[in-house]
Amino acid sequence: MKWFPINKNTIALLFVIIVTLGFFIAGLFEVLDYLIIKFLLICGYIGLVAVAIFFAVKNRKNRLEDKLQDDSH
Question: Taking the complete model, does pTM exceed 0.85, yes or no?
Fold first, then answer.
């Protein structure tokens, strides 16, 4: 049983939730100054940007070309 479908919207939403909760929890426990925490959060952000760029390029390839139609006949 699927509770929510796995598609590009849910993948992006999960990345945003993970990065946001990571910043919140790291700030709450005052561990944001540690290098490994910064590294993990920045990698999550880079992953989010990579997924966004991947789906943007994939969406551009699937678009129809703009071809003008002549309806004056």
Answer: no
